[in-house]
């Protein structure tokens, strides 16, 4: 229960505080140039907290070169957003609310394209590397999508505080949605590919993808469809289930020992 001692919690609090401090400064001084930074820090809080928690548990960041992870975060997340955004606009209609149930079948494949591109080169074909790549890509996607929702809130005249509230709520939900859905599929896929030595399609990978896509669509549907308010609480069940499946898929990953420098000789 002493979660407040963990650095993931400290990072989450620090990023949220910085985001709202920038928003408060903008409200007082009227300097709207800081809004992009406020939105970025607010959108980053939840995903960064989950990345720290997962890394502290299994040290996945040491399985892939730092520059590769940075590229997956920046470029991979952008490619996923490009693909997901295009097909979202093509296949999801505001006039047909039920079309939101397609979103998981659109965005989950989009987030898997960049890690798959790396896997097809034959590099980083380990389960730990796959989880790291998947989480990095999903983090870039989730942060940029959350910022888009914040700007949409501004466009709807909700004000900066309304946008900050959107970021706070998404910061609480995205670690148990976008990140764990992509992480789940990558854990299963790269686990298979580590054994096979190459990227192949198998039944466990298909099952993991279908599960992630269904959870994604169900999560969005519970928030958007016209259903009784008590039923919306099932969103929490979906979030907990999503994280539990991801945790179960990665439970056999062991922390990689970090070599310690030898003490200087006298």
Automatic annotation (TrEMBL):
The protein's name in its UniProt record: PrsW family intramembrane metalloprotease
Organism: Streptosporangium oxazolinicum
InterPro entries: PrsW
Transmembrane segments: 35-54, 66-87, 176-193, 200-218, 230-246
Keyword terms: Membrane, Transmembrane, Transmembrane helix
């Amino acid at each position: 229960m002493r979660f407040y001692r963990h650095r993931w919690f400290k990072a989450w609090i620090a990023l949220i505080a910085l985001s709202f401090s920038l928003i408060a400064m903008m409200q007082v001084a009227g300097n709207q140039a800081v809004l992009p930074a406020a939105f970025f820090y607010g959108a980053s809080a939840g995903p960064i907290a989950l990345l720290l928690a997962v890394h502290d548990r299994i040290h996945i960041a040491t399985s892939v070169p730092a520059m590769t992870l940075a590229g997956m975060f920046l470029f991979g997340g952008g490619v996923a957003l490009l693909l997901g955004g295009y097909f979202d606009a093509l296949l999801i209609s505001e006039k047909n609310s039920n079309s939101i149930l397609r979103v998981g079948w659109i965005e989950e494949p989009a987030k898997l394209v960049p890690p798959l591109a790396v896997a097809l080169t034959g590099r980083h074909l380990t389960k730990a590397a796959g989880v790291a790549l998947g989480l990095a890509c999903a983090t870039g996607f989730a942060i940029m999508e959350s910022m888009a929702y914040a700007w949409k809130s501004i466009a709807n005249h909700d004000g900066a505080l309304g946008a900050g509230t959107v970021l706070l709520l998404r910061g609480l939900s995205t670690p148990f949605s976008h990140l764990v859905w992509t992480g789940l599929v990558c854990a299963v896929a790269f686990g298979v590919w580590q054994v096979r030595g190459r990227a192949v399609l198998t039944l466990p990978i298909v099952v993991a993808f279908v599960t992630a896509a269904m959870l994604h669509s169900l999560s969005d549907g519970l928030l958007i469809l016209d259903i009784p308010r008590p039923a919306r609480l099932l969103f929490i069940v979906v979030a907990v289930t999503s994280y539990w499946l991801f945790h179960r898929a990665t439970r056999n990953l062991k922390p990689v020992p970090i070599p310690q420098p030898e003490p200087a000789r006298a």
